[in-house]
Design brief:
- The chain has helices at residues 72-81, 84-102, 106-146.
- By secondary structure, it is an all-alpha fold.
- The longest helix is centred in the last third of the chain and has 41 residues, at 106-146.
Length: 152
C-alpha cells in the first residue's frame, strides 16, 4: 500500500499555489500593485499642495464663534403638536442654519434662525387660537341647545 502525501502538498511534488511567490518583475518594467514607485511619497506622507491633518479645510472663518441656534426641536414639536404648515416652514428654515454657517454666510444663518423661531412661535399661537375658538364654539353650542323648548 502506498503512503499518502502530507496534507497541503502536491502529489506531483510541486508547491501549492498559496506557498509559491510570484517572480520579481524584469528590469525596466513597472513594479506590481502595492509596491512604491520612484518619486511617489509613501503612505502617510503629505502630498505636495495638500493640507496637513489637523488644519481646517472648510467651514466658517474663525472669527464667527458658535453657529446661531437652529430651533430644530421647537420646529419639530410645533409641526407635530401645533399647526402643520407653519411647522414645516419652521423645519425648512431651521435646517438651513447650519449649512449657511458652514458656508461662511453668518448673516444668512442668523436670518434663517430668526425665521425658524418666528414660524415655530406662529405655529404655537395658531394652535392655541384654534383651541380657544373650538372651546368657545362648544360652549355656545351647549348653551343654545340647552335652552330649547320643552313639550307638554
Amino acid at each position: 500500500m502506498s503512503e499518502q502525501p502530507p496534507f497541503g502538498s502536491d502529489p506531483d511534488g510541486d508547491q501549492p499555489p498559496w506557498q509559491s511567490s510570484p517572480p520579481p518583475p524584469p528590469y525596466g518594467q513597472q513594479p506590481q500593485y502595492g509596491q512604491p514607485q520612484y518619486g511617489q511619497p509613501q503612505y502617510g506622507q503629505p502630498q505636495y499642495g495638500q493640507p496637513q491633518y489637523g488644519q481646517p479645510q472648510y467651514g466658517a472663518p474663525s472669527g464667527y464663534g458658535a453657529p446661531p441656534d437652529n430651533y430644530l426641536v421647537w420646529a419639530i414639536l410645533s409641526t407635530v403638536l401645533c399647526c402643520l404648515p407653519l411647522g414645516v416652514a419652521s423645519i425648512v428654515f431651521s435646517s438651513q442654519v447650519n449649512s449657511k454657517f458652514a458656508a461662511g454666510d453668518l448673516a444668512g444663518a442668523q436670518e434663517s434662525s430668526r425665521r425658524a423661531k418666528n414660524f415655530a412661535i406662529w405655529s404655537a399661537v395658531a394652535s392655541a387660537a384654534s383651541v380657544v375658538v373650538v372651546v368657545i364654539g362648544v360652549a355656545v353650542l351647549a348653551a343654545t341647545s340647552g335652552s330649547g323648548s320643552t313639550s307638554p
